[in-house]
User: Which sequence fits this backbone?
């Protein structure tokens, strides 16, 4: 007898694992429609999770790239002497929160303005004779998030006429992302719980169908772990099967979208996430979520029915 | 060896099924447990294999106080006893051989030992020629013998039987009795709850009579004592 007791403590044997896997697949097959419904629920959930995730991550990337590009335009007082201008430049360059300072003459500024208006900009060329614009320093903050504070600080410096920056647009974009993230989260949690519930019901059917088997197992001294394994695996398979279709669809979709958008965005400061490794990350995330949903659902039923 | 000391059992609904039980059953004994339905016979039996826990008192089986045994240790304890029921509790989709082997497979015994032990016990209960049959193809007595084979395949020191002949006709009951006596002759303790007056009065063994949750009579080579 003691020889037998020792065996329980040893690591699970290969044929035991084989047995559990076999039993779990038998149940999946036997539960037919419930299996189908659970896998379907996981599929729908993960597909939505995946699409949301891809969109949000890319919006985030776009916002970041815009933010990276936010420039503070420091307009120099027209009355400033070249010495004062030099002093301002030195001062800006000495500030630790500033990454770069580039001078842009008023002629250069006008050319850019003309360019930005395209065809209609031709009329602005009239100003070439008497340029009303200011010379400017184009300043980039070391941390894009601190742009606002840096701009405020520069405003107070001498010889500064005006400070412009595009932070408000970026702030708005971040707000939109944050709202859509919260809305998405609520929807996803709702779907997640539905999927868990369906899986737990499927496993419940398995447990009820195998009540007598479980009763005998307990009677002859099978451990709770041994009894639980096939149900645990059944849940796991349901989760994994449910993640296959979403992973495939999202990978194909993203490949096409990336293939379409990436060339158009070439040379632009706006970026979307590259196909690799992003799609691998999404796939891994979906697979992991499928596993968690499946195991969670099955553990819920098992706990209730096996009174462990 | 089974020892009960001052065992009480009160169910949540208020029923007192064991009201101060003291008893000692030596290794190798053959014991009948008799009593009317609802006398506390089933609870007495169920406490021996830790299907029920006593409210208070000690139940020592093979040196372990199973009243205090942690749930996680129950599976190991169960491997040292065999249990037989009135309704056989066989798995209908498994053959005779598979039903018996099941008890060893789920405790992860090696295939070599399983094969050897299953054939041994099926020979002992005289079913070696029907290993490939399903329970539905067997008579009641044969099904009960499969269930007995399953209970002893793990070489337990104690076999507990809860009315094993309750569903069987008299001739078949005698056959089952013979099997139990044979197992007992190898040194295995048998505790058998029964309503079968003929058997108790003919095959003389110790009789423990239970009424109102108490042992009201405990005799070596006793009689059934009730008018069934």
Assistant:
């Amino acid at each position: 007898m003691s020889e037998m007791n020792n065996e329980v403590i040893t690591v699970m044997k290969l044929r035991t694992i084989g047995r559990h896997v076999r039993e779990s697949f038998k149940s999946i097959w036997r539960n037919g429609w419930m299996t189908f419904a659970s896998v379907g629920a996981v599929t729908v959930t993960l597909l939505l999770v995946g699409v949301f995730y891809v969109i949000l991550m890319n919006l985030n990337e776009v916002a970041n790239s815009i933010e990276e590009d936010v420039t503070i335009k420091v307009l120099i007082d027209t009355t400033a002497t070249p010495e004062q201008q030099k002093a301002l430049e030195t001062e800006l360059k000495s500030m630790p929160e500033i990454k770069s300072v580039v001078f842009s003459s008023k002629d250069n500024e006008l050319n850019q303005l003309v360019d930005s208006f395209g065809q209609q900009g031709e009329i602005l060329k009239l100003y070439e004779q008497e340029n009303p614009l200011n010379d400017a320093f184009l300043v980039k903050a070391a941390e894009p998030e601190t742009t606002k504070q840096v701009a405020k600080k520069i405003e107070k410096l001498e010889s500064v006429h005006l400070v412009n920056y595009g932070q408000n647009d970026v702030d708005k974009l971040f707000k939109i992302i944050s709202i859509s993230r919260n809305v998405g989260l609520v929807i996803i949690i709702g779907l997640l719980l539905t999927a868990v519930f369906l899986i737990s019901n499927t496993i419940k059917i398995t447990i009820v169908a195998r009540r007598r088997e479980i009763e005998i197992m307990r009677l002859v001294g099978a451990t709770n772990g041994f009894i639980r394994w096939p149900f645990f695996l059944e849940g796991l398979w349901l989760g994994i099967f449910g993640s296959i279709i979403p992973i495939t669809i999202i990978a194909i979709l993203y490949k096409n979208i990336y293939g379409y958008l990436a060339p158009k965005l070439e040379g632009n400061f706006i970026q979307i996430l590259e196909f690799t490794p992003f799609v691998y990350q999404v796939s891994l995330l979906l697979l992991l979520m499928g596993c968690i949903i499946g195991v969670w659902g099955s553990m819920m039923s098992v706990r209730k029915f096996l009174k462990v | 060896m089974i020892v009960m000391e001052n065992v009480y059992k009160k169910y949540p609904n208020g029923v007192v099924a064991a009201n101060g039980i003291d008893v000692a059953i030596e290794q190798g004994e053959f014991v009948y447990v008799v009593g009317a339905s609802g006398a506390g016979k089933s609870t007495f039996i169920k406490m021996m294999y830790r299907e029920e826990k006593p409210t208070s008192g000690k139940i020592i089986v093979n040196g372990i106080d199973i009243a205090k045994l942690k749930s996680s240790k129950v599976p190991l304890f169960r491997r040292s006893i065999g249990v037989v029921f009135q309704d056989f509790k066989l798995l209908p989709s498994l053959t005779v051989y598979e039903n018996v082997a099941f008890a060893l497979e789920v405790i992860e015994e090696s295939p070599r030992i399983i094969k050897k032990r299953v054939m041994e016990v099926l020979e002992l209960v005289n079913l070696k020629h029907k290993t490939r049959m399903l329970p539905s193809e067997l008579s009641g007595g044969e099904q009960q013998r499969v269930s007995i084979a399953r209970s002893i395949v793990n070489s337990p020191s104690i076999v507990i039987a809860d009315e094993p002949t309750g569903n069987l006709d008299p001739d078949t009951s005698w056959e089952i009795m013979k099997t139990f006596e044979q197992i007992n002759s190898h040194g295995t303790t048998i505790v058998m709850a029964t309503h079968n007056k003929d058997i108790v009065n003919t095959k003389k063994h110790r009789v423990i009579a239970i009424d109102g949750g108490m042992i009201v009579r405990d005799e070596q080579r006793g009689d059934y004592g009730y008018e069934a």
Notes: The beta strands of chain B are 2-10, 16-25, 30-34, 56-61, 64-65, 81-85, 158-162, 189-193, 206-211, 214-219.
